[in-house]
Specification:
It contains eight helices and eight strands; from the N terminus they run αααααββββαββαββα. It has three domains: 83 residues; 61 residues, Roll (SH3 type barrels); 84 residues, Alpha-Beta Plaits, CATH 3.30.70. β1 and β2 form a beta hairpin. The strands form two sheets. Strands 4-3-2-1-5 form a five-stranded antiparallel beta sheet. Strands 6-8-7 form a three-stranded antiparallel beta sheet, covered by helices on one side. Helix content is 54%, strand content 17%.
Amino acid sequence: MANLANNVSTQTHAIFNENSKYHDAYQTIDKIVASFWERVPYLCIAIIVFIIFWFLSKFFKLFVVRALSNRSYAKQNLVLVLNRVGSTFIIFFGFLIALVIAIPGFSPGQLMSALGIGSVAIGFAFKDIFQNLLSGILILLGEPFRIGDAIICNGLEGTVEDIQIRATTLRSYDGRRIVIPNATVYTSSITVVTAYTQRRCEINVGIGYDDDVQKAKAVVLDILKNHKDILNQPASLVNVTALGDFAINLNIRWWIDTSNVTLLNAASMVHEEIVTAFAKEGISIPYPIQEQITQAPPVQIESEPKT
């Protein structure tokens, strides 16, 4: 009986110990749940505050577009800078306020100190990102080109579709998208093809050595003078540039307004009119001719054998 009583007492103590462990776990969970429900109103307020600042960023973008887009002095890229940088700052500021409301004891100074500890590591890890970011802001502020301009950068040519904070997007003439990092764009030489509406066209035409050079020049100048899409100023030029193997090369230069006609169309029309006018005036446009002379093999005469 004594052994039975000891066994019962031992089992009872073990049950009480297990219950006390679960009781402590339940109390801890209850405290966590209670503290969570205590913070729910603050979390809701923090989410509402962040949403308000998000809407403020949208209203800020709308205000900038309406205030600056119709001003004659406003730059297109300045509107982009204010929209992107300004709205990002507003959202970040709202995020900090939401954190202060949602997290007890949190302050923006703690976040700054935490970022300061890892600033060296972050700087090395995101060096290229920060470089492209700063280059993008400088490009947008300096405005060396605009959206819609045709540019050439490092041998890549296309129309600017967008100038983002990280990269500049081009659309090539054959319909491909080209993404160039802003650091490359900022440190490279840029050719803005559409910076000016007046552009010079240039083609080369050959005439025969038996043709009258002055007559050919007069015919070409008359074509350029009477063409509706060719500007009178600056004046068109026709010069002899080389005496080729089979032709006298004429260099023809004229100016157009790209808002009325493209370079390719202008060159095509002038080529067609020159061919028609030269044929009418009897001026030849020579092309390389190769002569191939073949010689028949000598005929061998067999001698008759002597008898």
